UniProtKB/TrEMBL annotation:
Residues 1-72, 84-105 are annotated as: Disordered. It comes from the Eukaryota. Residues 95-105 have a biased composition (Low complexity). This is Uncharacterized protein. Residues 59-68 have a biased composition (Polar residues).
Amino acid sequence: MQMQQMRAGRAHQVPVPPANAAPLKVSREMQQQLRQVRHSAFERHQENAQWTKELLEGSNRQNESVRTASDLAASQEELQKRIEDKEKSTDELEQQLVQQEQAQQAAQRRFEEMLAALKAVGDASTLKECEEKLEVERKLLPNKQRKMEIVRL
């Protein structure tokens, strides 16, 4: 039996319905949820990029340290001291991270309390005061990126 080459014809095109010109109606709650999801995805993307960068830099540094360690005879005491220093630095970083998380949670609680007060407000003057407080708090909230430290022992 002999194989024969055949030329396939063009793929059939399937008609696609036209896009709806009317804007999509989404509730405010759904918009807020979508914003939060988009923001958390962006944060995850930033963290992953940072971790990847640090991992790549760390692997280069680790290769260099392996070369220097094999070239030089490091004593057991020096290695033990390095390990203790690394443990201390990791403990300090963990404490800093816990403090930052607590501060951020406290700020978030204040922010949510003000939002709840804004929703419950009846008269215009109280509404104005709450909006001013809210703007002040919004400026105080940390807006810089979170950075995770990778520590090698």
